[in-house]
Amino acid sequence: MTLGEIRALLLRLRYWGRLEIGGKFRIDGGTINPNRGKIRIGRKAEIKRGAIIDANDGFVIIGDHFSLNPYSILYGSGGLTIGNWVRIAAHVVVIPANHGFSDPDTPIKKQPETRQGIVIEDDVWIGAGAVVLDGAHISRGCVIGAGSVVRGRTDPLGIYAGVPARKVGVRGEKRLIADARGTPRNPTLPLSRNKD
Q1: Of 65, 109, 116, 120, which sits with the fewest C-beta atoms within 10 Å of its C-beta?
Q2: Is the backbone of residue 110 left (phi > 0), alpha (psi -120 to 50) or beta?
Q3: CB 91 within 8 A of CB 132
Q4: CA distance 52 to 147
Q5: What are the structural domains of the chain?
Q6: Given pLDDT bands bounded at 50, 70 and 90, which one contains residue 7?
Q7: What pLDDT, in 10s, does the model give residues 123-148?
Q8: 12 vs 122, which has greater pLDDT?
Q9: Whether pLDDT at 189 is above 50
Q10: Do 76 and 41 meet the contact criterion of CB atoms below 8 Å apart?
Q11: Dihedral sign of CA atoms 71, 63, 149, 133 in order
């Protein structure tokens, strides 16, 4: 039994009834805390050093073959559902809740939160430093560029980047790109067609 598997076993015992972890789970220095909520993590998940999964008073459900890289944070306040084969890079923050701030005479901390929840479907890769906001729904097969801020719903297999994240491509789509002279070329062909 590896150290990561021992940690997973100890977590199961500590949070009995509020934490479910599938087989072949590895935790390498991350923090998992269901608080007053619940967390369920599928098989073959890997949580790296400094990563945090905190259900608060909501829930976090994660599928199989999941990886959460260093210093990323997943909260569960408004509900977070993550599919299978999802990769989350370092320093990503996923927040399924938002502070109310409409009343300028009441401190923000005392105003009610919105809690729409977040869904991340199967086979998604979220790049380093991205932020996923309350109400986001990242569809199957999407790639989210590093540093992007995601809100709303994405299209399946979409490639998104920017603040706010916008669709910049589609996985599997072959696109012509321009060379330095502005001449369109197929990126799978060599740059030069000289025969010598």
Answers
A1: 109
A2: alpha
A3: no
A4: 19
A5: 3-185 (2.160.10.10)
A6: confident
A7: 999 999 999 999 999 999 999 999 99
A8: 122
A9: no
A10: no
A11: negative
Could you tell me the two tokens for 191?
């740059």
DSSP secondary structure string for all residues of the chain: --HHHHHHHHHHHHTTTTEEE-TT-EESS-EEE-TTSEEEE-TT-EE-TT-EEE-TTSEEEE-SS-EE-TT-EEE-TT-EEE-SS-EE-TT-EE-S-B-----TTS-GGGSPPB---EEE-SS-EE-TT-EE-TT-EE-TT-EE-TT-EE-SBPPTTEEEETTTTEEEEETT----EE-TTS-EE-TTS-S-----
Residue in the block written with tokens 């991350």: 30
Say which amino acid occupies 148. Answer: S
Cα separation, 172 vs 154, in Å, equals 16
Count of all residues that appear for the chain in the document: 196
